[in-house]
Amino acid sequence: MEFERIYWEEIGASAEVTHFHADNGTDELHAIIHIEPNEDVFAQQLKRIYKAEELLASHPRFKNAGVVFKRYFLSDSTNQAPLIGNYNDSNVSIIQQPPLDGSKIAVWIYYQKNTLIYNENGMTVAEHNGYKHLWKLGMLESKGDSAWQTECLLINYEEMLLSFDATFADNCIRTWFYVRDVDTQYAGMVKARKENFIEQGLTEKTHYIASTGIGGLPENTKALVQLGAYSLVGFEPAQQRYLYAPTHLNPTYEYGVTFERGTLMEYGDRGHIFISGTASINNKGEVMYVGDIVNQTRRMWENVETLLAEGGMAFDDVMQIIVYLRDMADYKIVSKMFKEKFPNTPYIITLAPVCRPTWLIEMECIAVDKRKTNFKEF
What we know:
23% helix, 6-stranded mixed β-sheet, 7 helices, CATH 3.30.1330.40, alpha+beta, globular, 3 domains
């Protein structure tokens, strides 16, 4: 994997890029674009983000690369989202999780090379070598409480999967639940998700789905939950394995939630690890280092590193990181810690409360490594 930091002085923007080179077939790239605030209003910052995306697309590294998905992190989604021209696309996610570098907007973009990317039945499909990677982001419901909205979103998504002869239980790899006022609305989301999963045959005796459930404000002020999901069609069940790290983490069902800590997908030429939102917790489900942002950050890293190791990877294989902070006053110290530990990994630090009030920080990431198996190549 290669890392490159690109800076465009003329527009005050930078991109941190990781590039996984395939021996044959599909390269993967992740980019996180940051801009300097420059005391600009949002429209001016958005214009500079778009210019940075345009310049990145023309960079030699991105030749023949197509956009699989984008996630925009905004400081005020209700007022800013309508200015983003493609925000209703199935592969675009917009959420109010303010970047803590002082800007109003940042974007994470996932690219693939030599891939057929198209829209079908409301999904963005990246198709190659017999696989269909299905992306559906920004799903909203504006009626009812958080439990009702979660149930509606999951049912709608499950119905969409049926058009691909897929099911949520068999084909969904990763989900994101963004919850408005997470301290009060998270419980309703958790209850509805658990009930839906039971109906789908997902229990602690089968498996759950890698996921992040985090504070975030959809642009629709009546939406209490926003759902994003990634599913895969065309793989063998043996290609998927769940990561537990029992020395450091407990099963999530022990404290009433229903997600996997991490998921490993193996292909003939590589492995993918999707690490769920992970915080400072021990294998008894207890929050570690309450009130201590430094030690919570270190314990969070230790937990993620242990999950990665269980899947045969390490931090050097991580393609991107999203960091969620509860208190913006912790930004300076956390930013310094991440800069020292991850000098060659794209990351963004956002303001987003974690689902337990005593958790000060959480992170998620995607890792990729080269490996040889008997499965079809990616």
